[in-house]
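User: What would this chain look like folded?
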Amino acid sequence: MSDKPEELLHQLKSLSGLFPAWNLEQLPNRPGELFLDWLKLAVENNVKEPHAMTLSTVDQHGYPDARVLILKNIIQDTFYFASSSTSRKGKQLNDNPKVALTLYWPSLGRQIRIRGTAQDQGDDAGAADFRKRKPGARAVAMTQRQSEILASEHDLNHSIELQEKYLQNNPDFAEPNWRLYAVHAQEVEFWQGDTDRKHIRVLYTYQDEQWHKNRLWP
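Assistant: Here's the prediction, encoded as structure tokens.
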């Protein structure tokens, strides 16, 4: 194996394998319906963590930022995720709620790209989502130090231990800064990869209070 990055990358395969067929003559009128169809197929084909998605935001200087998190729910054409409002992404969402979501399932050669506006769902929704999290995840969120510089592992473990003890005595506690966000989609693109790069792309765009769909060039 080559030690040169360019040669190493060139040796790697991409878009290899047999991908599922996609009947474009039976496209639903709303992107949410097609998303659920694709998600169910991903689950049936044992795609690992098919609900993992990249959330892209923009900071105050105009630089894009991205991280992988979990899709919590989809209702019609609205996609939900959760985060602390005091985290880096939470602060970016407060300054600029316009976001992009990206899901990619290599084994199926499929990608879904969503653009829209994220909206905080309020105290009750945030509390309900927080209480559904595993105790360890709740304790980490309660440290309220996400993205800050960590001085020592001891500081981290000590803070988590304190929060775990607090949760044992207050099992119904919900971190007030934990929020559930709803992304109201304006564009949703479904991308089916092809080994010869003749990719199939369908874009749903919301205009004049209705969805329009168009085939895109690869």
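The mean pLDDT is 96. If you want, I can go into more detail on any region.
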